[in-house]
Amino acid sequence: MRTEGCFVDSFNLAFAIKSCIGLPILQDGKLIHCLVIKSGFDRDPYLVTALIDVYSDLGSLKDTQKLFEEIPEWNTVIWGSMMKGYLKSSKQTKVFERYPEIV
Length: 103
Known about the structure:
The protein is mainly α. Helices cover 66% and strands 4% of the residues. It contains 6 helices and 2 strands. The chain has helices spanning 10-21, 26-38, 45-57, 61-70, 76-88, 92-98, and strands at 2-3, 6-7. It is globular and about 45 Å long. This is Pentatricopeptide repeat-containing protein.
């Protein structure tokens, strides 16, 4: 996809998402998330996992949960990222309360 003179693909978006982890600004992660959606890559499991990591690393468990629940099909990598987010926020037991199907 071409966006305002720039070529956007899942490879470039993955690097943009990963760079947001080092930045302490949640808004940057949300802007990249919007670009992922606009580019049509919102179902890419690699990008979704990276976005889950960004939201959880930046302390936005609410956004992490929302993104996770919008995913039509979960895999073990996505589950692992979600559990890591809960562990980072010291809410280990919440993942099992909220998603009992993994137990």
